[in-house]
Amino acid sequence: MSDASVTTGKLLLVEYERLKEEQKTRIGFRDNLIYATLASMAGVVAATLTPRGHSGLLLLLPPVCVVLGWTYLVNDEKVSALGRYLRLTLAPRLAELAGAPGEEVFGWEIAHRSDPERRLRKVSQLVVDLGTFCLPAVSALVVFWVDGPGRGDLTVVSVMELLLVLALGVQIVRYADLAQGR
Fold first, then answer.
1. pTM
2. In a domain, 180, yes or no
3. Residue 142 covered by a domain
4. Is residue 118 part of a domain?
5. Interacting residues of 56 by C-beta distance below 8 A, sequence separation 6+
6. Which residues of 163-177 are buried (b: 16+ CB within 10 A; e: fewer)?
7. Do residues 170 and 139 make contact, with C-beta atoms less than 8 angstroms apart?
8. What is the pLDDT along the chain (182 residues), one digit of tens a residue?
9. Does 181 reside within a domain?
10. Count of domains forming the chain
11. Domain range enclosing 107
């Protein structure tokens, strides 16, 4: 193996380490967004249920869910994109440098996607994501429409919020990585 190949291999391994670190950081941030969403929901619901609470406060919940849900989705997609890059670009380059094209490098990057229970887990995660970021927002809107003050301006706002929540739900479903293997 030439010095250039060794140097390139070392650089690619450093790239792998940095990308795995970024992936780990994004996973932690993404997962904490669920707790932030739950805390935000609790705050909005608590404010609404106070003796002087106002059902119009429920209109705060959809934007909170959309902003945190979108941030969650973007980070989740970046975690998946990092994994795809490691599996489909970096691993083959390292295998080629090692003189073993077609051999598995970073086998875990592929193995954990080949688990027979992966699809069930990913569908379950999809249900949890929709239940965390979309269902509470839609529920808040339904409660507002049933018990709200009936003001036209707030109704217009609530319909716009519904459209945002539905758009988020479509994106969550669209980006659900249900595939197995590579």
1. 0.86
2. no
3. yes
4. yes
5. 144, 148, 149, 151, 154
6. ebbeebbeebeeebb
7. no
8. 577 778 888 899 999 999 999 999 999 999 999 999 999 999 999 988 887 768 888 999 999 999 999 999 999 999 999 999 998 999 999 888 887 777 788 888 878 778 888 889 999 999 999 999 999 999 999 999 998 777 888 999 999 999 999 999 999 999 998 776 65
9. no
10. 1
11. 3-175
